[in-house]
Amino acid sequence: MATSSTQRTYTAPCPGCGAPVAFRSAQSTHAVCSFCQSTVVRDGDTLSRIGKMAELFDDHSPLQLMAQGRFQGKAFTLVGRLQYRSGSGNWAEWIALFDDGSQALLAEDNGAYVMALPARLERELPQAQQLRLGATTAVGGKAYSVALNEEVALVSAQGELPKLPPLGKTFPMVELRSADNEVLSIDYGAEPPALSKGRPVELEELKLSGLREESTKETAARQFNCPNCGAPVEVMLADSKSITCRACNSLIDLQQGIGGQLSHAIQDEPVQPVIPLGTAGQLQGVHWQVVGYQHRLGTEPDDPDEHFGWDEYLLYNRKRGFVFLVDTTEGWSLVKPATGAPTLSQNQQTASYLGTTYQQQYAYKAETTYVAGEFYWPVARGHTSFNRDYAKGKSLLSMEETPKERTWSVGNKIESDAVAKAFGLEAKKDLLQRGDAGPVSGKAGLGCGCATLFIIVFVILVLVMMVKACDDENRGTGSGIRSGGSWSSGGSHK
């Protein structure tokens, strides 16, 4: 648990309402009054009101102000929060104040977290437009890949802040990622641009206390009427950016907030997931709940008439974040978004990540064709990307690229029996069997002649082809392990 900071805490009345506004860090220049949402700036011991901050969007994060923890042996307290919006969705960055007065950012990263410390370069930072998506650049003698280059805007803030970009005004943000899971973020909303260097963390390893507990956090569903059919829709997932109406299957964009003008897309051909939404189970020692489902269609780049389909289930754990359970005709896999960026060979036929080299299996275009449930990114029917799948044994690595972001997912193949057991579907395990199921074997000495055996084999082959044809009609024609992770499974790292 964090101890009391050795820095002097300064408190002054808010110029807007008179409530006390506290500054714990000497580096904090701005704060947001928790009572009237006034944005105040500190000049010595004087506070001046410079406007009113927009209301926070409720991200139902387990984090909250004054939560305490430890990182690299030092105690810290969360003293501020910045909420951003981009074309890929919303995310938050928490300002962590260490007891020695230094600061860090605990940033959301595709359903997980990255702890980043301020960094400096000996040379001047390049302009954002010079950092092309997918390009490799050296920083301090280390190779990084440009994983994100997008316009973002600050939409709200809370607590005390070391900076305050103009509210609602867009500015570039660039992310560079290395093959050993390091993230360099360049924030062009500051002058000069602010640089931070971080690595992935799990909330458990930060030994956090003072989190929003399940018993006290707002768990009541957010409710509204479907903009298409008027049926009631309940939003339960912590960070939902999109949801489907259970009555009419419309896909609803939640980015404007409930009560705002919600856009929707009608989905005329509902697909029934094999694992029902809401199903909970324990997979690889972690308790997960199925909160989202999407069906995706792939197209071979050299043969646009050749299609194959696969399914992706979004799984959620409050402290572990999100992973994807991927269902293809050749088997199941469990993958999660990678923090780093694997190193590609010049011909892109191999990719190296965390000491393992993977061989490319497939390259294809992918499109989301059906969505159900809730998602932490603004998933959209018709979302397209270019994907590359790599593998080494049962280990999988997948790249997904859109015009603004290149993302990676990493995971492993798992047995269909393990999936059935995890989600209590043993009675339906035959429906979950894929390419990992063993071949049907016959026993010799059954007293049937070769002709009879030939007929039996022939009938089995015909039945198999009929079943496969029906399956392909519903799922698309299977063509290999599509481990995608899909954006790699979804939207933005943020």
TrEMBL record:
It comes from the Bacteria. Signal peptide: none annotated. Residues 69-202, 277-415 form the DUF4178 domain. The chain crosses the membrane at residues 444-467. Keywords: Membrane, Transmembrane, Transmembrane helix. Residues 484-494 have a biased composition (Low complexity). It holds the Pfam family DUF4178. Residues 475-494 are annotated as: Disordered. This is DUF4178 domain-containing protein. It comes from Caenimonas sedimenti.
